[in-house]
Amino acid sequence: MSEDFKKKLEDYSNGLLSKEETEEVEKELDKMELYQSYLDSLMGSEEEPEKGPSLEKKLVKKGKWKARLQNAWTALSLLLLFLIVGWVTSAIFYSWGSPSRQDVYSDVIKAAVETTQPNITIGSTSMNGGVFTMDYEGELRKMIGRESETVVQFQTKFLFGFFTVDLPDSLSERPFFFYPENVVNYRIQDGFDQLEKLPEGTVSELYITFTDYMSTDEFLKKMEDKEMMPVWMAADTGRENERESNPIGPSEPFGFPYMGYGFRSDFKTVSKEEKKGLLGGYSAETSETESMKSYGDGEKREAEFLKALHLIEEYRGRTEHLHWQSKEELIAKIDYVEKNGVRLYGAVVTGPSKELLKLKEEDWVGSAKIGEKRLWNW
What we know:
By secondary structure, this protein is an alpha+beta fold. Among the domains are: about 1-30, no CATH class; about 175-270 and about 290-375, no CATH class. It is about 40% helix and about 25% strand. It has ten helices and ten strands. It has helices at about 5-15, 20-45, 55-95, 100-115, 190-195, 215-225, 300-315, 315-325, 325-340, 355, and strands spanning about 120-130, 135-145, 145-160, 200-215, 230-235, 255, 270-275, 280-290, 345-350, 365-375. It has a five-stranded antiparallel sheet. The chain has a three-stranded antiparallel sheet with strand order 1-2-3. A two-stranded antiparallel ribbon has the order 7-8. Strand 1 and strand 2 (about 135-145) form a beta hairpin. Helix 4 (about 100-115) crosses helix 7 (about 300-315) and helix 7 (about 300-315) packs antiparallel against helix 9. The longest helix has about 40 residues, at about 55-95. The chain is elongated and about 115 Å long. The chain starts with a helix and ends with a strand.
């Protein structure tokens, strides 16, 4: 064995050879193993068997293990680099803009749910970033009496700008509204019949249809002195814009929550505090949005509703499982509302059952369907 080859073997065992030189040495070692096997077969048992692996085999084994470790370390380094790049990219992507994409996507989900689901609001939420993704988790809540109770937990995953919003089918099992022009023909008041049978000490959820369209301010004025609370208002988006022709009432009502949407993009920073020290620092900011009068600010509420419609239309592909409207149908609804204004034809109200029963005597209430019922919490 030449000194040059011995030097190459030593470099091979230490992983110092190039790829081409490594392949060349391994070929030579393979040849040497074949020669050794041939000689052993010729010599038979005349010679003592080797006491242990040859130097060449030791070097080969050592070199192969070093190569494996190097490959494993390279793969691990690439994986860590991929994760770091993914997290950094996600953080930049979702925080980009003013308002940020994170806030916009949160508003889209809020608009889609609270516009299409009567008396359903999104409670506490959390958004956790991942590798090119973000997990969104939230509570769906319903107001019955004075208590806002959790109906179900739901979640969705953002993959950059792609996400969908799916809700349990059970939410579609709810009372329905009528069109005011048909309420005389379909004056269903079995909700009041059920309220009469309920005992004192209970609260209920009631779906009412008006005998005529009215503005938001007009409806809130009627509710001001009553011992009950509106929670959701059904808005006219044009009968010809209904996906399924229904002469009695809308199969997929659109409306808006009494408490407002509370869009993240509407919050404004009013104060910001930063402190720095030797070991780091922190920053804190306070944000707030415009408040609304309990029984007024109809224009603000209606402007929020229009904003919600535009968000649903812009992100239709992500929210279609809630409304099943085509882009053209959504645009038609927006055009109708912008042309005719926001006209309410019904609402969901809640309060003491016997107080709700008094609505039977109001000439502006055409029909009533009862929803959830609970023990007293008013």
